[in-house]
Amino acid sequence: MRLPIVFLALYLLGSLTGCVSYEELRNFQEVPVTANKTEQIDNKVELQIQPKDLLRIDVESVNPEAAMPFNQTTQMASASQASSQNIQLFQGYLVDEDGYIDLPLLGRIEAAGQTLESLQFLIRGRLREYLRDPVVNVRFLNFKVTILGEVFAPGVITMPNSRVTILEALGMAGDLTDYANRDNILVVREEAGVRSYQRISLQDDSIFNSEYYYLKQNDVIYVDPIRARTATVSDPGQRLINYLGPVISIATSVILTLVIKN
């Protein structure tokens, strides 16, 4: 009868090691389960263009041939047989250190500090001297964020649009691991030559009103591990127990079943 007792002890040991509490795995704990409310979005950010941003500028007009000189994309696509990815790397207008871009015929235009919409308005006004009823579209080509720490797919993520929340970014990184500290996520932001740091919690519904809920270009997100994760990394024996825990549990269950039947 000692054998089942030994396996029972191993089973309890395997089930208790490396446990993560239910509360540690939950997000938005302060949001009621039966939440049925609406609220005005007051923290939506208007992204401002910064030096080193890469912008794509498309110009259209009732006379397409007249608009062609202003479209860098059209010129490069016709002059190069390179891959679409390589074309995109060179088709944008890079904002220089002083915050300016150079456009054909229009010359230097100050872009830094402006939103995409305000820059569109400025360029459209300048183009009326050359084009009839010009239409201008400006967007980021290098809008990206970096996600590190306890996510399933850390790395640099290029965003398809400029309105991205921290939840969307974490989703694109494969979501949080079981060892992620949902109460302590660091966001590092560089803007107008100033670097800021902010700790936010996914377990508090105040995140939805945070100025860091909507991300800006080049933000860095770091997800801290919980203490249970630290133990598995620092103690090889703990790691071995964690790996063997499920195996021990299954084996113990099978043996206890056989003993009970006999």
UniProtKB/TrEMBL annotation:
GO terms of molecular function: polysaccharide transmembrane transporter activity; porin activity
Asked if the record carries the keyword Transport, the reply is: yes
SLBB domain: from which residue to which, for each copy? 144-223
Q: What's an example Gene Ontology biological process for this entry?
A: monoatomic ion transport
Q: GO terms for CC?
A: cell outer membrane; pore complex
Location comes to: Cell outer membrane
UniProt superkingdom:
Bacteria
InterPro entries named in the record: Poly_export (IPR049712), Poly_export_N (IPR003715), SLBB_dom (IPR054765)
Q: Kindly give the membrane topology term recorded for this protein.
A: Multi-pass membrane protein
Q: Which residues form the Polysaccharide export protein N-terminal domain?
A: 46-140
Main localization of the protein? Answer: membrane
Q: What is stated as this protein's family in its record?
A: Belongs to the BexD/CtrA/VexA family.
- The protein, known as: Polysaccharide export outer membrane protein
What organism is this sequence from?
Answer: Neolewinella xylanilytica
